[in-house]
Amino acid sequence: MLRFALLRILGAIPTLLLVIVAAFLLVRSAPGGPFDSERVLPPEIEANINEYYQLDQPLTAQFKQYFTGLLKGDLGPSYRFRDHSVGELIREAFPLSLQIGACAIALALVVGGLAGIFAALRKDTITDRLVTGTAMAGISIPVLIVAPLLLLVFAVHLHWLPSSWSSGGGVSRLVLPVIALALPQIAYIARLMRASMIDVLQSDFVRTARAQGLGAASIIRHHALKPALLPLVSYLGPAIAGILTGSVVVEEVFGVPGLGQFFVRAATNRDYTLVLGIVIFYATLIIFLNLLVDIAYGILDPRTRKR
To answer: Per the structure, how many domains does the chain have?
Structure first.
């Protein structure tokens, strides 16, 4: 298992390096600069600012300096939040994004998994068609539409939940962001779990268990559930990535002061280092979580360790 994990880590390093280079070049190729504004600065002040942040150097020199800082764990200063470094801003905002994302993925796994199993046990019935139809609708509607609709219905019209992070307190302000993030993943997981469970229930070892007189609940719990979970475990990597990227929209809609909202503001203000820091942080996190998924898959199915 250790060799399996080490090979996955070594394979992730080139991917992370490619993300760093691509993100750096894309951010620097955007028109304008971090200190452009409606008020034109005097040339002397602008030159001093560029010299202070070393933006007057060639692109290769800037990348070398930035990459050297990355190797030391330094993501650089923020150009807009002058009293904070990028690392400090990420440490401040990420726990909130993590809380919302973890709740969303847990909700998606429980609701989507149970719905998929329920539909598989009632294959080709009205219940099955209702679950698959609802799941298809959930897949088709993006978070960009779901989040404002939830806000309009449950906060503006019904007044059941707070409309923004600052207008509520406690658990209630988590409900709408978590549901908005979880709904598309519930749809994907339900369809995936349904297809996987149907396939497992038609296998020979399940037929043998039925022939021995075992009940449906016992067959699912002791025989069918573990192999049916394998495709779901593989999907957890893309699911977590979807939760993280979806949080950018959700946090902006609901006014959540998390990492997604910082990313939107940094992109709007051309805060190069903050955009790069968040992209690299997200990329590292996704690679790490995919590594955990690969290890979990290797534990559930030892045959994958030999690949």
So the answer is: 1
